[in-house]
Amino acid sequence: MTRKFPHLCSPLQLGNVTLRNRMGSAPMGGVDITPDGGIGPKSTSFYEHRAAGGAAVVTVSEVVVDPKTDASANYRLAENPLGLLSSFTYTADAIRRHGAVPNMELSHGGIYGSVWNEVSRNAVKFGPSGLKVPGEPEIVELSKEQIKDVVAAYGRTAALAKRVGFEMVMIHGGHGWLINQFLSPSINHRNDEYGGSVENRCRFALEVIESVRNAVGKDFPIEFRMSGFEAMADGYQFDTGLEIAKAVAPFVNLIHVSAGSHHIGFWITHPSAFQPHGVNVRMAAEIKKATNTPVATVGGIYDPVQMEDIIASGKADVLYMAHAVAADPYFPRKIMENREDEIIPCLRCYACNSERAVTTTRRCAVNPMFGREYEGFEVAPAPVSKKVVVVGGGPAGLRAALTAAQRGHKVILCEKADRLGGITVCEEGVPFKEAMFDYPKTMESLLRKAGVEIRLNADATPEYVAKENADAAIIAIGSDTIIPPIPGVDGKNVIPVTEKQNHHDEIGQKVVVLGGGVAGVEEAIHLKDCGKDVVLIEMRDSLAVDAAHLYREVLMDQLDRRPEIDVRLNCTGSRITGEGLYAKTSEGDEVFFPADTIILATGQRARRSEAVTYSDAAPRVFWVGDCTQARTIVQATYQGHHAALDV
Length: 647
Hints:
- The chain is α/β, with parallel strands linked by helices.
- The chain has 20 helices and 29 strands.
- The chain has an eight-stranded parallel beta barrel with strand order 3-4-6-10-11-12-13-14, surrounded by six helices.
- Helix 14 (395-406) runs parallel beside helix 15 (434-449) and helix 14 packs parallel to helix 20 (633-646).
- It is globular, with a radius of gyration of 27 Å.
């Protein structure tokens, strides 16, 4: 066949394995980790799904090599207790049977890995150098003897990885973990042969690589993951990163180029929507030119056209994806089969990472099966095909319609507006919300291919739905913007944030955004980037409290980068005039903010009472999404999907 992306789909030889294409599933950690550190069945299915989706290599994330000095992650690979090895064997088998190469990331958290010291009876952390931080466990400098033990532990773990069926190992030398800590002048203050010069700071990494090589043999592929730069003022920059890459290149089969350190922020190691696609490619290209070793990179890689160009132009040899294959695990397979238009885009919302941090599970805003692969990869056909009417073309309705059609039902999707997307259409023209705006377009394409009848400008009242004589109705009519009961709120200078896409030309130079939830903060940032003078007013004492917690960190960082935005907390709008907005502070004082335009970002209210009127529109009626409770897209997607599974 003629492939649209021939370079991206071409095989690559690494040591004694062949990658079937140039797309890899980046390291992602487990969730149902057994008490002894094994891989539970849900995580095995998770990794298997990435392999079934066409990735060339699937990486099991952060297996701790030395539990005596590190408790940063939970996976442990050891001969005892009984059953521990088998969990990794089953996982390697599950990955391999779909044609992907099983890869294991070897890691040591260093100063992030508290362990219990039986002698001192205190928690301690081990790192390149000693340090005391108030309120934190003491960081103890690794002795030379301990360094030798850790180096040997890398080799032992690599040998076990090979023994249980993994065909590659990735040594994690980036993101602020132990190897990176030795490389970093910010953390490594040693005065011996492991500190000081770049050559000395590389010594630990080179000893680890040598230990692993001796354990796995000369043809077994070793991948070294590194941060091209640390993104810290006192950390190393890319000129040093290039020297590090040149030092390790002769001894590994693949150099994996990432960036940043957990010392300064999650959004560098895991690029946010405010960073460009393929943000680390430029460093990979420079490292590839300076070495004779194949290079992989990761970070905001989503666009197939860009990906093909990266490989074709020789900037990198392998492109790793994490969020992209979380949103659509079949991303690589769709590329291989020339179905790139069917790829469901990652929204770059951090729901996945935030959920894992908060509940130790996984969720995705656009993939309802994410983290639940153990229940089955594919949507199973229904025993009997039925007629289903879905009312509302927002995220909940889109997913409900697609899942119902995939089950073999005859589906009619009715949307009152002239386009699909619901509340997401308000993201039109916002650069960092591009994927959110594009998502309904992809879903519309998938719905039409699945045979869904889409009716736009359709006011599907309960009577309208009842006349269809459907077997089931899924009601996804969304929510309304909460309009605060203050004088002047109905003025011509007031625009709800959910309607701003229809009023771009009406927004003046001076803007007050009333409401500091996630929508208000995003709008304030966007308006500032458009050159507006922005005041952001929030009645609570914190901003974006409704955001996924890691995304909230991103938003706060972006606000810090725009100090010109006038943020007012504990401040409530009291009245609006043609000249601006009056607000009351927590002390009771009234303050006037001149404004040409007031953007209302005061939250959403569920259309519950309207949704209830559909109770008799069909034998079975489901209410999903914001009409039950104003929620995130994550919740809307899950509700829509599972309602369709219940039909």
